[in-house]
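ugh ok fine here u go
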Amino acid sequence: MTTRRVLRCADLALLGIAFLALLSPGVGVAQTVTLKFGDIYAENHSNSKGDFKFAELVSQKTKGQVKIDVFVDSKLGNEREMAESVVAGSIDIVASGLSGIGRFIQPIHTLELPYIYRDLEHMNRVAEALAPDVDKILRRSGLRNLGFFYLGPRSIAGKRPIRSLEDMKGLRLRVPETPLYVGMARALGATPTPVAFPEAYTSLQTGVVEAAEGGPDTLWSTKWYEPAKNISLTEHIWHFRYLAINEKSFQKLSSAQQQALQEAGKEASVYQLGLLKEFNKESLDKMRAAGATIVTIADTRPFAKALEKFNREYAEKLGPEAVALLEKAMSVK
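structure:
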């Protein structure tokens, strides 16, 4: 074989290797990664809009290499079921609160105790201060926190108005399926009735419960104001939802893709916070226009006073880490 033929064969062999390399996963041609993301809220809710904004930002930042498939309105299950799925890895990402991933990360329950935040701005400053602590806690359950979504202030949609603490006595109040809300309702004198989120409307309609509580955005988007026309502004809880990804799903991404998701999470948090402020006012206006009565409570201090002992004992029951987290949150100005 001549030298020229040897060189030609070598060139062809190299071209073949290069072609096979292009066909190999993860080499040459970028592979598209699809992540499944679940949430309980309706498509018009500020949290769901935050979900879609997160997906849009991830696509932009990764140039389409990472696709987030968003399933809202409990399409992947209720909050508890989706939390179990994200821990197991059958769902990659979830926006969830205490009824969901809170089951696996008890210390963060203290961040949802009633009357500990002044307003959304204060709450946002707490989120920034506590982000490393929250992520550390989530990691123990195989999750990673990409950002915070915000809800609140929670008030009460009821068949009768609440104007004072005395009006809470014996009220059959729908609460999320979590000890914090059950205990809070009981401390206020109500009869707590845990009902899964998708079943709350029917429970109000049939009289299983007399009232349910949630932020203006939630009360409007769920239409709870239809069977429960009195919106009493107790404004008892402002709370976080956590944009949590399964750690194994996160580690399958390249470092650049991981950074893109973290950046998108922070930006989506800011976006959703801005939406919530607008939605709260708009939601109250829309419910009023739809026939609901908005009840302003002259003084909520008796409500807060009735919950002081509950807050303290609840944090202590969860242990020193929970107490420290609460103290750190309350120290933020």
